[in-house]
Amino acid sequence: MDSIAIIIAFALGFAARQIGLPPLVGYLVAGFAIKAGGVEGGALIVELADVGILLLLFSIGLKLKLRSLTYPEIWAGASIHMLTTVIVFGAGIFMLAAAGLSKFAALDFKLSLLIAFALSFSSTVFAVKILEEKGEMSSLHGRVAIGILIMQDILAVIFITASTGKLPSPWAVLVPVILYAIRPLLFRIMDRCGHGELIILFGLLLALVAGANGFELVGLKPDLGALVLGMLVAAHSKAEEMAKALFSFKELFLVGFFLSIGLQGLPDIEALGIAALFVVATPFKVALFFLLLTRFKLRARTSLLSAFSLANYSEFGLIVAYVGEANGWISGEWLVIIAIALSTTFVLASPLNAAAHGIYNRLADPLKRYETKTRHPNDQPIDPGDAEIVIFGMGRVGAGAYEFLQTHYDHKIIGCDSDPLSVRSHQEAGRNVILGDPTDLDFWERIDIQSKDGRSRIRLVLLAMPKYTANMEAAQLMTEHRFSGLIAASARFDDEVTALKEAGVHAAFNFFEEAGAGLAEAAYEKLENHMKGKPQEKKNEK
Question: How far apart are CA 37 and CA 4, in angstroms?
């Protein structure tokens, strides 16, 4: 049976992707199809589901930087939003129960709050995917959205841990001491794992053995153990590499989780209607996020883009409902209802986020009325000083370009990046780098680049951001703001080079071709010097 389930899951997941839907929609439908065929789920699906949840929590722990949660818009924004959503949704669900609707008949006020709690989460998986595709993970709105999601995930883990109602073993008090003692050892092992399969295997060992099994031995929830072990090594330089290496494993095992939800049973007309009602309620969550974030002095654009990234229900909400069903608090029907609502919001949120910048540009004036008079520290006016060359995106390409231009030209150069950690690192290295996001419409209204004669003081802009879409958006905004200097940009493919030039970029370069040409040029120069008997220069080649 498990083999048949995998075949059906792949077929329907593949079909969903071909029509622009997330594959998980296909996995849920696969579960329904298997259930409709009268087949029960096998042991393999249950095991896949459990491992998928553990790896999801471990991955979240790997990305968890506690310092990022100390900002009021993160911890307070997430807490107030969740509390408000639970109260409003819980009251609405309880009123429907009081009205005598059959699906709600068994729900008292506490269980109504439980379902509302499950609906209060937004999807970490969805937000990370959308932000990575758009190259906005390090932008202010991206960091705010991810911070809020991490806060929500922590609250979910607290609930899951407390749901057993059992006291842990007395040995559990030694867990913090043991973790503190073994952390240096874990770091040394990660240092020596290299970059291949060992880093993956060590991640699985931490999540499933040290985390899940270790915590279970002392009466603590395995889910909590996976999260805590991820947090324990999050500060290591290879934590991000480990998270990326485990990503495919996590996605694979979560297929079992979504299949198991579909296997709970087929939805009837009433279940579909309730799921549709939950979908209709989603704009409340979006509007509440926008209102709260503007109260924390974030600009309307930052608040709206963050809210759009959170415009859905979450796989964590399913896990919360799964715990409720396992403990006998709610029926399996509610898992199916929440799964349908989750899938639908994924489908709707994808085009919404794709059009997010355009939506803000059209609604900027009315949305700005919600901004506070004082600005968030990261949203202050931008002053490039007397710079004549600006490099947007200070990753490897941008930093290399900065060093080259600083060495070969007398013009004053400034770098600009949307990641405050990157900006701080460059500033500490002595580079002139400021914080800013050139894909932000308001960025070009806040930055002073005009000279007295109305022309641009900036003579040259280099677009070196890692995502083509970000470079394209910045180029289009500069054209709209009548930037009169030269624009150069990097790209990865020839069609991107063509599109950038059509958008007003004066010089666009294929990154891979230019890197290959640069490598060959440097090697040829070395070879020529060697053949002529010249001493090798020991300078840093950029």
Answer: 11
Please state the pTM of the whole predicted model: 0.69
Over residues 218-241, the pLDDT tens digits come to 888 787 888 889 989 988 888 888
Q: Identify residue 448 by its one-letter amino acid code.
A: D
d(CA 530, CA 542): 20
Rg (CA), the chain: 26
Classified as helix, coil or strand, 294 is helix
Hunting for tokens 């520290």 — which residue is that? Answer: 377
Question: 437: closest CA among 298, 231, 288, 255?
Answer: 298
Cβ-in-10-Å burial (0-12, 13-18, 19+) of 332 comes to middle
As a whole number of angstroms, the distance between CA 233 and CA 64 comes to 10
DSSP 193: S
In sequence order, the β-bridge partners of residue 489 are: 463, 508
Query: Is the torsion defined by CA of 80, 83, 87, 88 positive or negative?
Result: positive
Whether the Cβ atoms of residue 415 and residue 433 lie closer than 8 Å to each other? yes
Q: Whole-number mean pLDDT of the chain?
A: 83
Of the candidates 10, 113, 103, the one whose C-alpha atom is nearest the C-alpha of residue 320 is: 113
Cα–Cα distance, 3 to 200 (Å, whole number): 26
User: Rounded to whole angstroms, how far apart are CA atoms 124 and 112?
Assistant: 24
Distance CA 250, CA 167 (A): 30
Residue bearing tokens 């709610």: 330
Contacts of 245 (CB under 8 A, 6+ apart): 199, 200, 203
72: number of Cβ within 10 Å = 11
Give the relative orientation of helices 140-162 and 222-232 as an angle to the nearest 10 degrees.
140
Confidence category of residue 343, pLDDT binned at 50, 70, 90: confident
- From the list 6, 17, 63, the residue with the least C-alpha distance to 39 is 6
Strand order in the sheet with 389-392: 433-435, 413-417, 389-392, 460-463, 486-491, 507-510
DSSP 395-436: SHHHHHHHHHHHHH--S-EEEEES-HHHHHHHHHTT--EEE-
> Residue 358, Cβ neighbours under 10 Å: how many?
9
User: What would the DSSP string read from start to end of 36-67?
Assistant: HTTPPP-HHHHHHHHHHHHHHHHHHHHT--GG
Which sign, positive or negative, has the C-alpha torsion 165, 166, 167, 173? negative
Q: Report the range of poorest mean pLDDT among 77-81, 91-95, 337-341.
A: 337-341
Angle at alpha carbon of residue 345, lines to 50 and 25, rounded to 5°: 50
Measured CA to CA, the distance from residue 111 to residue 127 in angstroms comes to 28
Q: How far apart are the first and last CA of the chain?
A: 57
